[in-house]
Amino acid sequence: MRKFIFALLFIIAGLSYLFEIDELLIKKFTFLNDFKNLYISKVINFSTSFEKHFNQAETIEKLKVENTELKEYKILYTNVQNQLHTLKEFLVNIDVPENKSKIEIVKVLSYINYNDFTKVWLDKEIENDTILGLITDNYSAGIVVNKNGHAVGLLNGNKECSYAVFVGEEKAPGIITSSKNQDELEIKFIPVWAEIKKGDEVITSGMDNIFFEGLKVGRVIQVTDLADMKIATVKPYVNVLKKKYFYTYKSTGEFTNYNVVKKETPKNEVPVENKKSSNN
After folding, report:
1. What pLDDT, in 10s, does the model give residues 197-225?
2. CA-to-CA distance for 45 and 22, rounded, in angstroms?
């Protein structure tokens, strides 16, 4: 029975193809062709949309990864750009006297204590306890000390930072240190006989072998007379707390030991002592 039905359907399909019955049906019943075209169009559109959706999701995921990488590169680029900009502003000519000295660029790494902005770690290793001078833009910025082999920058205003200076045209000596006001410095141990006044310029003296003579510090804004000394309040030229880079200065000059040389007496000259004894 099944074979008969299959044979009959095969015959009907063959006759319909032979006598072009399908074309006749399409011509007579156009809605069938429209339904067919609509069906094919919907299927194609659905397949295309389905493919686009998954392709779009894959593309979005790929773009997210690329965007994350670009953000990381942007952060690195911005960081390097800021560092180069800072270095561009920092790298200026420094008038260092012609003596045996060593100048190096150092970078501020971080604060040592978050409640003290005048004490910072520097990217430098120190082998001994020699105190170095810290310079920025031809101004004194502080000193550098050794802490377990690492450089610690004690900036102007730090209570542990002090170095020798000259005040005014007469070069009155003194020691500069911190002040109660964070924006100011104080010079102590100025001799009572020193003629200093408001507006006098303060420079490094080099007498402590930390800096060379002539590095600018600031100007005197107030003079206080005490019984045994004078104290000058100084407004520094530069705010060192905002700096990211400094120069370290180290004098490598060797001091000559001047020994007293006994003058030789000429052969034909009698020593002074012998003259005295002969006269007696």
Report:
1. 999 999 999 999 999 888 999 999 999 99
2. 26
The mean pLDDT of the chain is 77
3 state SS for the chain: CHHHHHHHHHHHHHHHHHCCHHHHHHHHCHHHHHHHHHHHHHHHHHHHHHHHHHHHHHHHHHHHHHHHHHHHHHHHHHHHHHHHHHHHHHCCCCCCCCCCEEEEEEEEEEEEECCEEEEEEEEEECCCCCCEEEEECCEEEEEEEEECCEEEEEECCCCCCCEEEEECCCCEEEEEEECCCCCCEEEEEECCCCCCCCCCEEEECCCCCCCCCCCEEEEEEEEEECCCCEEEEEEECCCHHHCCEEEEEEECCCCCCCCCCCCCCCCCCCCHHHHHHHHC
Asked whether the beta carbons of 145 and 186 are under 8 A apart, the reply is no
Residues in the chain: 280
Percent of the chain's residues with pLDDT above 90: 46
Of 236, 241, 248, 243, whose CA–CA distance to 134 is shortest? 248
Dihedral sign from CA coordinates of 52, 54, 60, 62: negative
Between CA 208 and CA 197 the distance in angstroms is: 24
Please state, in angstroms and rounded to a whole number, the distance separating the CA atoms of residues 175 and 277. 54
The CA distance from 49 to 57, in Å, is 12
Which carries the bigger pLDDT value, residue 184 or residue 16? 184
30-45 pLDDT, tens per residue?
555 565 566 666 666 6
Q: Is the pTM of this model over 0.70?
A: no
